[in-house]
# Entry
Amino acid sequence: MVYDILNQSSVTTFILVGFSEYPQLQVPLFLLFLTIYIVTLMGNLGIILIIRINPKLHTPMYFFLSHLSVLDLCYSSVFTPKLLQILVMDDRTISFKGCMTQFFFICTFVITEMFMLAVMAYDRFVAVCNPLLYTVSMSPKFCALLVAGTYMWGGLCAVILIYTLLQLSYCDYGIINHFGCEYSAVISVSCSDSSLSQMACFIISILSESSSVLITLASYVFIVVTIVKMPSKGGLRKAFATCTSHLTAITIFHGIILLLYCVPNSNSSQLFVKVATALYTVMIPMLNPLIYSLRNKDVKDTVRRLISSKLHSHLT
# Structure
């Protein structure tokens, strides 16, 4: 049914404005985003590889972290290649099908990551508050169900939103004042009443953001209470160390998302929307592996062993 609607649309092409209003910044931005993308690919692939090769990291926490890295790789790769293309090429067009496909995947991956962070908060809650029952409570089957649930919810939300967008009619050769098919940018080139689609987006955004934040906050309230009650200072430091990396990632991710979607939809805020979108689609996927590797002893120890073994093999 979705493909029938897609085929009925008279629009075949959109034009992405990107950052073309700043021609002197095109090359510097290209080099900046290319560097970030390369670091993102290397960092997230590195995290996945480290978790796979170190048996000590075959735990629920690192299982969720590996899926977080997969999500970072995926949604960074949805936006960044097209962004790099329009920064250095005159062709700034994107097909209607390509635009809808890009929106579908970015919506799926961002909402999935939102709940993956909430699942990771729940995992830390069980680890700190019920350490003796941790292996039983966070069994491999239960962890797989949690991960599958996050992907299913992200996909379902994306299907609903893409369906409402496909109900709209769009102006021929619509000019999208963005570097990608972000929701508000797509809505701005619609020539029909978009109130139903906007209502669906509002409901899904509020439901997803509030429930994921609620799960995260509730988990950390119990964690803080448990840590405060710990008689041992060493135990307190160890428990806090397992949570700081995750808290840092959550703060950056939700902070930018809330900041982006609290901005009034006006022409004066278009640059801010583009910059904020670049932060959570390009910067966050790069920052997550850095946050978890720099603040995680097990990951750093694995990296050191890998480097030392490589150096030893070269010397011999």
